[in-house]
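Please decode residue identities from the backbone states below.
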């Protein structure tokens, strides 16, 4: 059997390796347009920022490696021009010699990846406007920095790559201005979590222009000024476009291969397309959500490797099947870590769930052992109690917690299950009640035990709509005087039992403290004394003041 693979990065090379492990006598060939193969695209910002000093660390496996270890023939700088699915023949061009030839196949894997979204902006063709998708593009950025010694840059887009590049350019002494067309940074997060990232970026003196977009890049040979839709003009020595990618599917589409609703190649759980003996994997292929079971497109190297392994297994007689994704992502920006998995609040609402939201602000380990606070936003379904999604912003221990949440969601955990997890504890690693367990406790209380939460935004809407609400600040008087929710009265926790009888039990009551724990204690007292409707502010005053400015 002869297997041909188009594309030699994560998905394609994973498919080749798995196919070889299953079938020693198969003929396997890979064709790729690029100079580099099997590289770490996620490491490119750190290569530019000189955190990774050796280019070879990004490209540890070359064509010789694949031939020697897997007996796979890899042809770089070869573009597949056409797929003739009926005759099972490819038309291929050698980009170095311009020779064109045909190659037959028995099984075909399309792993053509994704390509940067190129906006229709006047001046975007200038040579100091960069996109970061492969190692050659990273080389060009590094070379430009070394030869032109730039002092400023504009990065368009505030997703993973945009913020990772911000850190690395700033570390090189290049002043960055971020431009984002949305009104928040990190579009993958809900607004109430992105504010924490925005505040941190401000503390690092990062210029940000939100709710605006680029309309023109001015300059003679090189860009010198970035003109925004608002009329604002930003001086810049170069520009990095980081507004996302789209699946590279032209070749597949011309061959009659069906595309999904998001424009990527439609595949089943076996990575098969609608045409027999043609598979697709990686950033060009469609995923689906573990939660909703609906098509999804979240191109990541981890997913591409998984898909590639499944495609290689299937075409060589195996039975691996794709189980979907949660759209998990994690990145760092200076000392801050940002992670998310599953559905955001807005996605949960859009999918018809009745979400219950909690904001849990806890240190990753005891403060006496250098613990640092993280903010965990968790989204659960009120009707089933299942965990739907989590977003975390913090400094240490974020990766550990997000991975526990990912595992829980993948296996259909309910919020009360989180408390019962036997998680590792010792002061250098965690608190006695881990933030994961505490998140489960908060949501369990809200969904199953009548201790309902209210977000800062929901509280403001409640008040602005004219509802008669009693807001109780359960902190000590000094904290109340420093800052408090408008219209709140101060009844410290240790006085609530005495003063509760003077309050109207029929009115809606909102309690809060600094981060939520004492607010919940006050809420318990009032509920146990017969108050009809008592909410606790999610994340307490600390979260409230971040949201309401």
């Amino acid at each position: 059997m002869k297997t041909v693979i188009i594309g030699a990065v994560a998905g394609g090379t994973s498919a080749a390796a798995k196919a070889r492990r299953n079938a020693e006598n198969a003929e396997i060939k890979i064709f790729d347009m690029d100079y580099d193969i099997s590289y770490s695209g996620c490491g490119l910002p750190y290569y530019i920022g000189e955190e990774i000093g050796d280019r070879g660390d990004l490209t540890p496996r070359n064509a010789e490696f694949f031939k020697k270890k897997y007996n796979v023939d890899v042809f770089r700088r070869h573009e597949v021009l056409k797929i003739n699915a009926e005759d099972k023949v490819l038309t291929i061009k050698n980009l170095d010699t311009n020779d064109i030839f045909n190659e037959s196949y028995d099984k075909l894997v399309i792993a053509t990846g994704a390509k940067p979204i190129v906006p229709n902006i006047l001046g975007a063709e200038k040579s100091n406007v960069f996109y970061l998708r492969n190692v050659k593009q990273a080389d060009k950025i590094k070379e430009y920095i070394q030869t032109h010694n730039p002092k400023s840059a504009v990065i368009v887009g505030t997703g993973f790559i945009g913020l990772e590049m911000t850190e690395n350019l700033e570390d090189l002494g290049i002043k960055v201005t971020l431009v984002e067309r949305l009104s928040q940074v990190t579009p993958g997060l809900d607004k109430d979590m992105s504010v924490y990232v925005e505040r941190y970026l401000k503390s690092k003196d990062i210029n940000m222009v939100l709710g605006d977009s680029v309309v023109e890049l001015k300059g003679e040979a090189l860009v010198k000024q970035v003109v925004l839709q608002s009329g604002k003009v930003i001086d810049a020595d170069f520009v990095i476009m980081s507004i996302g990618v789209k699946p590279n599917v032209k070749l597949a589409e011309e061959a009659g291969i069906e595309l999904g609703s998001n424009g990527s190649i439609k595949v089943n759980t076996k990575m098969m397309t609608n045409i027999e003996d043609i598979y697709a994997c990686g950033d060009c292929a469609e995923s689906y959500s573990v939660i909703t079971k609906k098509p999804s497109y979240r191109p990541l190297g981890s997913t591409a490797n998984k898909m590639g392994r499944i495609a290689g297994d299937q075409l060589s007689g195996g039975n691996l099947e794709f189980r979907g994704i949660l759209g998990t992502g994690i990145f760092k920006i200076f000392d801050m870590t940002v992670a998310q998995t599953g559905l955001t609040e807005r996605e949960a609402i859009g999918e018809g769930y009745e979400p219950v939201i909690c904001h849990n602000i806890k240190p990753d380990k005891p403060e006496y052992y250098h613990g640092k606070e993280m903010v965990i936003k968790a989204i659960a379904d009120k009707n089933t109690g299942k965990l739907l999604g989590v977003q975390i912003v913090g400094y240490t221990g974020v990766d550990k917690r997000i991975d526990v949440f990912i595992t829980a969601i993948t296996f259909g955990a309910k919020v009360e299950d989180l408390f019962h997890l036997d998680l590792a504890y010792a002061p250098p690693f965690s608190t006695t009640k881990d933030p994961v367990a505490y998140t489960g406790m908060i949501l369990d209380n809200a969904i199953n035990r009548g201790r309902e939460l209210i977000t800062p935004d929901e509280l403001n809407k409640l008040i602005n709509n004219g509802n008669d609400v009693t807001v109780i600040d359960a902190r000590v008087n000094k904290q109340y005087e420093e800052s408090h929710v408008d219209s709140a009265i101060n009844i410290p926790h240790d006085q609530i039992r005495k003063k509760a009888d003077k309050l109207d039990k029929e009115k809606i009551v909102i309690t809060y403290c600094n981060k939520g724990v004492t607010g919940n204690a006050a809420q318990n007292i009032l509920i146990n004394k017969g108050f009809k409707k008592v909410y606790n502010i999610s994340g307490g005053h600390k979260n409230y003041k971040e949201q309401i400015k």
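Observation: The mean pLDDT is 96.
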